[in-house]
């Protein structure tokens, strides 16, 4: 008999499991509630398959046997020249693609709302970065993808850049017009690197957007665990035919650097099986998923105030329908909490005005029925009007929230020092309100989605403080790299 008090993680997970939450979040296998026989087979073999590199099991970094065969099948499935299984998430793929393709001091054009791993790679590689800002989807207050015209302007001023890195799809399922962007990069002799972490499922159904590689990207990273029935931390790096052998060799050397020297074979097996499930059932189950999501959209269309993101809200972007972004007159985080506490529905993420749900082929129709029932209940509640008014009044009480629409535009902090320079200088801890005009010594990252608001070396503006206060009053999570225990303080460079 296990004494659960002596195994707190197990105790916590058991408690969570027994809540039987409806999971609209990653990992994409959704705890195998759908009961894929392939995943049940893996489950039965967890301990017998948990191996690493011994004679007879091949080697992830010099694949010649089963891993080589699996990676060939993977490349076919992903439509790439070569695909690599990753065991440390898209994060290690992003480090490897950026540091494999650029050299110290090279200039790289970066979409400012990329995931924090992109900025870490720039730091690790001592690269010089120039930002291109994303467009904003006004009705939802969402920072989205990069527009080719905006990128063209930045390229015009930075012809010496070696590469461009963008995120597509975004956390919200919006996809850039990669064809136009890749043509622009080719015309200017720049490589196009795509963080496609949220798009691992694209090549498995004709209903989904085209992949970055098929649209001309030189390299793209996909997280298998986010949208496919695969274990957390599994991901795949996809290379296009445009890359030379020398470039590939350097990327491979980085993959060894940034991944464990004891790769988990459970992760490799999980990637292999997820690909197999998608190849054999992906198209059919994606159609089923679309039917479920269409029904939700139909059912929500007559709820006053609710808006669901789709192509009609976008300009020069496409959309991945498997991502449900629901804009709500209640604050995003409040609605997420209500869904969780009252209806056992767990969403992936909430921001100021939206909740974000991840749909995958592992979902069942009942999950979507539960979601519709809960939202109808919340919004049809005779208390809703009162709830909404209380909410708005509460927001107005807090002067930081008066200007809710001002969050539309991401703050654009000025870079005063690069990250390395900032790290080497003396720092001091000051009250957030006293930090305006000072240079930050740390990074501030709302999580999720993990897009840095401020990086070390950037100037703190009043706009940023307003944004931070809004995050705090909405109980959204903000990660500070140094002063994590001091909610109202921040490290700045000492003057
Ligand atoms: C856009 C984006 N890129 C990269 C990552 C990192 O992926 P992983 O968690 O697989 O390392 C994330 C994680 O949420 C992400 O949202």
The number of helices is 16
Largest sheet: 7 strands, mixed
Bound molecules: pyridoxal-5'-phosphate
Which geometry do the CA atoms define? Answer: globular
What is the CATH superfamily of the largest domain? Answer: Type I PLP-dependent aspartate aminotransferase-like (Major domain)
The neighbouring-strand order within the major sheet is: 2-11-10-9-7-3-4
CATH architecture classification name of the largest domain: 3-Layer(aba) Sandwich
Count of individual beta strands: 21
SSE-based structural type: alpha/beta
Instruction: Name the average pLDDT.
Output: 93
Low-confidence stretches: 399-406
EC number: 4.1.1.18
Keywords: Decarboxylase, Lyase, Pyridoxal phosphate
Domain Orn/Lys/Arg decarboxylase C-terminal: 391-473
InterPro entries: Orn/Lys/Arg_deCO2ase_major_dom, Orn_Lys_Arg_decarboxylase-I, Prn/Lys/Arg_de-COase_C, PyrdxlP-dep_Trfase, PyrdxlP-dep_Trfase_major
What does this structure look like?
Helix 4 packs parallel to helix 11 (265-300) and helix 5 (89-101) packs across helix 10. Mean pLDDT is 93; it is low at 399-406. The protein is of the alpha/beta class and 495 residues long. The chain is 39% helix and 16% strand. The strands form seven sheets. It has a seven-stranded mixed beta sheet, sandwiched between helices. A four-stranded antiparallel beta sheet has the order 12-14-17-16. The protein has three domains: 43-274, Aspartate Aminotransferase, domain 2; 283-398, Aspartate Aminotransferase, domain 1 (Alpha-Beta Complex); 411-493, Orn/Lys/Arg decarboxylase, C-terminal domain (Ornithine Decarboxylase, Chain A, domain 4). Strand 5 (136-137) and strand 6 (142-143) form a beta hairpin. The chain has 16 helices and 21 strands. It has helices spanning 8-17, 37-44, 46-49, 66-78, 89-101, 116-124, 148-157, 178-187, 224-227, 245-258, 265-300, 332-343, 365-380, 384-397, 419-424, 462-473, and strands at residues 22-24, 82-86, 107-111, 128-132, 136-137, 142-143, 163-167, 174-176, 191-195, 219-223, 235-239, 307-308, 317-319, 323-327, 345-347, 349-350, 354-358, 427-431, 444-446, 478-480, 489-493. It binds pyridoxal-5'-phosphate.
